[in-house]
Amino acid sequence: MPAARVIDWPLPPDLERLRTLERWCRVLLELIRSRSAEIERQVRLTEAARNEPAVTRLTE
Question: Cβ distance 18 to 11 under 8 Å?
């Protein structure tokens, strides 16, 4: 098994600020997932619309 890679990021030294960053990361991740799901829905709808037969309007 490869050795764990140590990343020397400038993170705050205290637990309170680390927890705050963790909460922000969770909020951002939820926003990203929500936006991704929205785009996936739009893509599916667009693809479905391309596959449907064209609807012609009846004139009187």
Answer: yes
Q: How many residues does the chain have?
A: 60
Residue located via tokens 């927890």: 19
In this structure, what token pair is assigned to residue 52? 């449907």
Q: Is the pLDDT of residue 56 over 70?
A: no
User: What are the backbone dihedrals phi and psi of residue 48, each rounded to the nearest 5 degrees, phi first?
Assistant: -65, -40
The whole-number average pLDDT for the span 20-27 is 98
Confidence of residue 7 (pLDDT cuts 50, 70, 90): confident
Exposure on the CB side of residue 40, measured as CA atoms within 13 A: 6
Specify the DSSP element, H or E, that contains 37: helix 15-51
